[in-house]
Amino acid sequence: MLRLPESWVWDFWLLDDGERYHVFFLFASRALKEPNARHYRASIGHAVSDDLTNWERVPDVMVRSDAPAWDDLATWTGSVVRHPDGRWFMFYTGSTLAPGGSNIQRIGYATSDDLMSWDKVGHFVLEADPKWYERFGAGLWHDEAFRDPWVFADPDGDGWHMLITARANHGAGGPDDGVDRGVVGHAWSPDLERWEHRGPLTSPGEGFGQIEVVQTQEIDGRHVLMFSTGAEHIYGERAGEATSGVWYARAESALGPFDLANAQRIGGKELYVGKLIRDRDTGETKFLAFVTDVDGEFVGEIIDPMTVEWDGDGLVLRA
């Protein structure tokens, strides 16, 4: 597992460079005392491993920028891909304060030649487009949700896709119209540097106020969408029964359609941000997550990998 004695660890993303596994993670000092204060103190750390279990911490990736900047409050969750020219691109969420103490989230990137030293480009490349997405100020949500970029190459070689945690600018009717607006946002790029909105890949009204830290993955020839949601942001028929945790929805492809109506939880309620990665030695798909609350105390560490596989139409975990 990955546990830091001096810092909490939470959201993370994984990479296999062909020789070692990398984990990039959000961390903040335990000296804050209050775990909820970590979000506005988040920096991005980095560790490497040969087996996804034993991790060696290496130099940190980045911290928030000096104000005024689009990422002067905190740097949050992202993903890493390699450009055909050999450069590594880390897409990440930057946040800045909004009136009233909330925050505005945008997406930018940093580049590296060796995965160890990273340089921010200094500007964001995407923000919530009001044509499709809810902006802060509507009075319906606590922030402007536009974060957690998951970037991958188009399967047919047509550029790059980005999936995004976002909220639709309209509801689906019913008593939860104003809050049940979580969607999977979508953008496309020809070169990882220029990005354009393509509109959300899902619709509001599926029972999730936000669909966090998304990842698409193929497991034994079948596509899934992995995401996380807190119990307080679940609506409709699931409300009152579901708990916080990691969810998955069956998908027809890496770009959907995603069967959110039949999404299911996987793992215990203490786990959040489930990430999948292929074990290059065994070919198995591994599942990692971070531990949130246990007996009312925030833990803040990443678990050892578990194998995830299909059991009929559902996914199961085994040690």
Structural features, described:
By secondary structure, the chain is an all-beta fold. The protein has a single domain, classed as Tachylectin-2, Chain A (5 Propeller), CATH 2.115.10. It has no helices and 21 strands. The protein has strands spanning 7-16, 21-29, 43-49, 56-62, 74-82, 88-97, 103-112, 119-126, 146-153, 160-167, 182-189, 196-197, 212-219, 222-229, 245-251, 264-266, 271-278, 285-294, 297-302, 306-311, 314-318. The strands form five sheets. Strands 17, 18, 19, 20 and 21 form a five-stranded antiparallel beta sheet that branches. A four-stranded antiparallel beta sheet has the order 1-2-3-4, with no helix packed on it. A four-stranded antiparallel beta sheet has the order 5-6-7-8, with no helix packed on it. Strand 6 (88-97) and strand 7 form a beta hairpin. The chain is globular and about 50 Å long. The model has no long low-confidence stretch (mean pLDDT 96). It comes from Nocardioides cavernaquae. Keywords: Glycosidase, Hydrolase. Its EC number is 3.2.1.26. Residues 19-295 form the Glycosyl hydrolase family 32 N-terminal domain. InterPro entries: GH32_Enzymes (IPR051214), Glyco_hydro_32 (IPR001362), Glyco_hydro_32_N (IPR013148), Glyco_hydro_beta-prop_sf (IPR023296).
Write the layout of secondary structure elements.
Blueprint: E1 7-16, E2 21-29, E3 43-49, E4 56-62, E5 74-82, E6 88-97, E7 103-112, E8 119-126, E9 146-153, E10 160-167, E11 182-189, E12 196-197, E13 212-219, E14 222-229, E15 245-251, E16 264-266, E17 271-278, E18 285-294, E19 297-302, E20 306-311, E21 314-318
Antiparallel strand pairs: 1-2, 2-3, 3-4, 5-6, 6-7, 7-8, 9-10, 10-11, 11-12, 13-14, 14-15, 15-16, 17-18, 18-19, 18-20, 20-21
